[in-house]
UniProtKB/TrEMBL annotation, chain A:
Its main location: membrane. It is a multi-pass membrane protein. It is found in: Cell membrane. InterPro entries: ABC_transp_permease, BCAA_transport_permease. It comes from Frondihabitans sucicola. This is Branched-chain amino acid ABC transporter permease. Keywords: Amino-acid transport, Cell membrane, Membrane, Transmembrane, Transmembrane helix, Transport. Belongs to the binding-protein-dependent transport system permease family. LivHM subfamily. It comes from the Bacteria. The chain crosses the membrane at residues 42-61, 81-106, 137-157, 169-197, 209-225.
TrEMBL record, chain B:
InterPro entries: ABC_transp_permease, LivM-like. The keyword Transmembrane helix applies. It holds the Pfam family BPD_transp_2. It is a multi-pass membrane protein. This is Branched-chain amino acid ABC transporter permease. It is found in: Cell membrane. Keywords: Cell membrane, Membrane, Transmembrane, Transmembrane helix. The keyword Signal does not apply. PANTHER family: HIGH-AFFINITY BRANCHED-CHAIN AMINO ACID TRANSPORT PROTEIN BRAE, HIGH-AFFINITY BRANCHED-CHAIN AMINO ACID TRANSPORT SYSTEM PERMEASE. The chain crosses the membrane at residues 34-56, 63-85, 160-181, 211-230, 245-276, 297-318. Its main location: membrane.
Amino acid sequence: MLGLPLILAAVITVVISAATGFFQDQLIWKPLRKKGLSLTQLMIVTIGLSIALQYAFQYFYGAATVRISIANPKTVDIGGVVLTVQSYVAMGISVVVLVLAGLFLLKTRTGRATRAVSDNPALAAASGIDVDRIIRLVWTIAAGLAGLSGVMLGLVLNGVNWELGLQILLLIFAAVTLGGLGTAFGALVGSLIVGMIVELTNLVLPGDFKYATALLILIIILMFRPQGIFGRRERIG
Amino acid sequence: MDYIVSLLQSLSVQALAPTTAAFAIAAIGLNIHFGFAGLLNIGQAAFLLLGAYGFAISIERGLPIFLAVLVALIVALAFALILGLPTLKLRGDYLAIVTISAAEIIRMVGRSSILTDVTGGSNGITGNTYNGPFNALSPLPDGTTQILWFNYDNNGVNGWWIRIVGWGLVALFALLVWALARSPWGRLLKGIREDEDAVRSLGKNVYSYKLQALILGGLIGAIAGIIYVLPSSVQPDGLGRSTTFFIYTALLLGGAATVFGPILGAILFFVMRLLVQTLAQDFIPSSIMNGQQTVQFSYVLVGVALMCLIIFRPQGILGNKRELSFSV
């Protein structure tokens, strides 16, 4: 809307998103952790925050869909598959980012520290890991990645509205749980499966069932294999 | 002065509306889940929706009203069993994910176009197809009655009869919760909320008690759904995630794990929102905030209020801080 070139706008969006993650942690989550709020309480606070932000977006931008690029999307044909350029670029970026995130968690020192904090914060702190720094880093990266995925989703769907985030949130839950919470490449595999299910449902059932099927699969996974595909049994307590 | 009087009048009308009563009943049900048993059910709206569908569709198909209520209760019971049996053995947050997903599935299936013949699709079911038998039960004579500034039809779609039944049920369920909370059963639930393993070590079947709590709260939720749709219509999108979040806000505002908390919370929730909306409409020039925006502004405040409640006063208005350090 401000007339910036697309790539620059995307980069700025990701940076701003990452910054919101950083400041969210500094201003809200870190003080609350210090205050000793339980996981449930923190979850309800995030729900409150999401209600406030969601309606704030609607307040400022209305309920209509905002389009990112006005031009009709161009399509390309790769190996007989015709898709918009945006979709191909988004897929490429996603694969790169997912592999990088996985490698970060498995191979780097900070990544290993992140997993240690996730397993047991007290023990991680005792072995010299700065737990607050790790959590701040995770918030920043996670918010940045969320911003990136928002940009790509907006481009692929060619439009964003105030409900977009909530629509996709449960699918993200389904994908991560399916892959296995706390596993490096679980999110990648889980997202691929959930994405396929959502789109392939259209072949068998009417379009309004596509999200419902994905959520049904989430429930079935939780019943029979709550740790997900790659998860380990002892993590789910 | 006139302005303040008419404002107070419209606020009190809102406070006693059938929707407020339905919200209070839903919050009482959620209170059994969340306040007493510590179950994080983020799908309470689905129990309301199932109750509403079960009731409305049964009556449309020609069942008598008591059977229709029974159908609504059976549907909610089945839903609670489906949700509870597999997940109550797992960590608490799994129940949260499953309930919110299941609630979305119910809503999406309900609004799906292939079920238009049964559920009315996304248009829902209009009130006049199912509220006839309920109004026929009314012992009140026809006509209108005015008490103070409350002036309604005795029997109409949105009259005294639905208000009496709604608030009567609120009182009934409050009494039930009061009795349950001081019974051995209620104490056991609180024990599970505080320390599951301790209760288990006393030889109690924690899983079964949690399931009972989930079922009871869900049944109360289904009744709330019936009251919610009687004066209006069944709208699947009107009973989605936001409804569940608003019921939580009402419950936490009044005070979880208390008898009157959910009722006070539901009344305050509606009254405060109307107050914010009215004041914003009347005093903020429409160039800064137009009519539509005052509604959204009031919802933004709901979100902020929910955050502040949890952070600064997790026990709500009536709760006991020592008792309520809920954690999963």
